[in-house]
Amino acid sequence: MNVTQLCKKAGITRQWLNQLVDRDGVPGVSRQENDRLQIADSSALQQWIAERSRQTAARNKTRERLRLDRSTVKPPLDGGYTARELADIVECTESSIRSRVLDIPEAYLDDTLTYVFNKKLGRKMRVRNVYRFRDTPGLREWIRRERETKEKGRKARKFRKFSHNPVARVGKCIQTLKMEWNRALKVSPLQTWDDMFLKNESVEFESVLRPILDELKRRNSTPHFPSRKSHTHTIVAQRPDIG
Length: 243
What we know:
- The structure is a single chain.
- The chain is mainly alpha-helical.
- It folds into 3 domains: 69 residues; 71 residues, no CATH class; 56 residues, no CATH class.
- Helices cover 61% and strands 12% of the residues.
- Strands 3-7-4 form a 3-stranded antiparallel sheet.
- The longest helix is centred in the first third of the chain and has 29 residues.
- It is elongated, with a radius of gyration of 32 Å.
- It starts with a helix and ends in a 5-residue tail after the last helix.
């Protein structure tokens, strides 16, 4: 069994397999001196593949269910969507739908007297000349494109918010350093280092960890002061009577 077959059976990528080997270890999979993976077939490896494949299938099933839930569009009750119903489907405001009515397919002006629920007033109102949109394949295709655009924008905002977080960026750097460090130690164990090189590297690591250790020490040694209210009550209670 090679790496490609292993990844295909487990339902994971080669990059994720390398990270698992360096981080947690995979039974029967080891890293050679040339940084390539060596796979030894065993019962433990087969059990690991079956468990990983089950987890991947469950995750894909959940993603598919969420995708179907987001893509499900309820058909209109009377043959056409109102502006409010269409705005709820594509996750935008009703005013946005009204401003783009000329670009939306199957839009028409309904001049019949009908009832529309007003959220601000909390009751139905009789209105005339409302925009409606016929439920046709062209309109459903427009809804699908709008939803895809919204989903892409949501993912981009989420990634941008995460990438701009300084703590998240530092955590990612530390995780990458940890994986590279474990990979390097498997190629060149500490027992093979000479004294001078080991001492120099220990000084480098100490200079990196010293600020973190100093901050932890400062937080643990910070005394806890009582609040001003409780401290005032304590002083008043201990004040001797004068008389």
